[in-house]
Amino acid sequence: MTSRLNTQFGGLSLRSPVIVGASPLSMNENTRLEMQQSGAGAIVLPSLFEEQVIDWSWNNGRKLTVRERGILEQSDRTKHHWACPDADSYLALVNRASSLQDIPIIASLNGYTAGGWMDFAGELEEAGAGAIELNVHHSRAREYVSSAEIEMTILDAIRDINSAITVPLFVKLGSNFTSLPHIARQLLSGAQGMVLHGRAPKVDICLDTLRLASRWRITGADEELDSLDTLMQVHSHCPAMSLAASGGVGNADQLTKVLLAGADVAMVTSAIYREGAGVIQTMLEGLVSFMEKHEMQTLRDLQMQRPLEFTSDEERTAYIAALTAHLREGKPSSASI
User: What is the pTM of this model?
Assistant: First the structure.
């Protein structure tokens, strides 16, 4: 793939702005190789869930909190959804994938309650993970006094995990936060990148049994992007934070749009389910064609053409300084507008 697509995402040097999002697809070695050959910049492995990390911590002699014991007791209900049977198997997967692939392998953790996150994050780094994605999933509102308490608990967990590793930490957030632009600024002290947005199964009610049901589906090829506005808001408010677009990026036009909106990379998953790993190459070829049409030599040229509005020359200057800093260093700086 042409070097003009080289980019940075939160400290990772990537050969392209397409990252394969977390899914069971990346469990297969041949599929990962196809993704790499098609031009993927990195691959996110399927998620390991907090109950699995709690079980690993308990097996390694750490005392569990009352909350963690409660989660572990309920884990039998979730086992059939796990891509990896246990944490040790996941470490083996990370080790093998990172040793066989020429692109970064990103480990994925789902949750934030587990007190063993710090120890296990260090194990993931030692196994070869190029970065760690924390897919934040908080408990129901009744367990907290306020939304501020939820956010503070998450921020504390992220800072703790980040302090235990030297590889980049990316935080994957859902869209149901009060203000993602403000969260982005707070996350600068603990995360090197944000993924917008994390998706969750849709809750449904079965009218035959009167029971709750969770339904998961891949994004349709004809669905519109729903993250452009949020990407632009977060990026304009906190340009020092590296962003990944997630959800609905399935063709070259959508890839180009999220990059123009403020994303450094795009997470692609549903399109690979629908069309196979070759869709990555098709998307990148379309991006190159767009860049050639507009006489852009590198992705930085594209980024400097983002359609952001500024109320003063000072804001524009601050934006360029922040963008240049994190592209050069690969890590967020404290500069923001």
Answer: 0.88
